[in-house]
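User: Before I run my own analysis I want an independent prediction to cross-check against. Here's the chain; please return only the structure tokens and, at the end, one sentence I can use as a sanity check.
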Amino acid sequence: MIIPDRLKKGDAVALVSPSGRIEKDILELAESFLTEWGLEVRTGKHAAGSHHIYSGTVDERINDLQSAMDDPDVKAVFCARGGYGAVQYIDRVSISEISDFPKWVVGFSDISVLHSMLNRSGIATIHGPMPKNFEALITDREDKSLEYLRQLLFEGSIEYSWKGESTHNEFTVSGELVGGNLSVMAGLRGTLYEPFYDGKILFLEDLNENLYHADRLLQNLRLGGIFNRINALLVGAFTNMKDSDPPFGKDIHQIILDITKDSDIPVVFGFQAGHQKPNYPLPFGVRMLLMRDNGINNLHNILGIT
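Assistant: Structure tokens:
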């Protein structure tokens, strides 16, 4: 696995919008915020563009992304928002230059497409906060999401402890983190961009899904044997999940428990990441240690980022 270098003051970073459209003032706030970190921000030509629900046409979006990934001086690529659209061009993205000049790609939600493609190709990424959410995170003084993102990017290590429920009272497992948005992951099933799951720690989150539909997507993973191939399942936020009429009969917590009950893997709930505040960053493709002792879950990277 290629793990990009830590950032340092003076480094150039790119700000692109590879999926949904976003307002110019949100991009300007992000530029200012990242500049305060000591970074030189290079904003994509079409980052504030508009083409239906997207920031630009397929060609415009891929050109901005490819230019950022190919630039040897750019050390990280911040995706402005999710939405939808990355799957439309993922087969046209060249990773040859990013392999030669490794850089972090940061984002979540629809950006799970890019995470999966890059992780499968042997390049680590960061599932984490995006400029669309910066203002809300900045104004909440108790939220440490951006502080943790900076720590991961500049210091190369991260560690989390929380009291979320687990199916196993005590355990210690390791593996590279993969995953992201459940709906996006399901959309990649059977393609050349589906993650390699064997021996990994799978992280999942989602937003605004019907409970029966989430069950369908998770059943797909079960039927595909995914829960027998991973080392652990890390459950993030499933935000604003919707019930049906008549009711489905289970909440997302019970759905996950029932679907994974025949798999002898730890299933750990309550990790603060996804479509919510806080949204803590996770290094995908990086080997992590996940453990539980005395009712406390702990997750940290085994080796620091160089």
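Sanity check: The chain has two domains: 12-155, 159-301.
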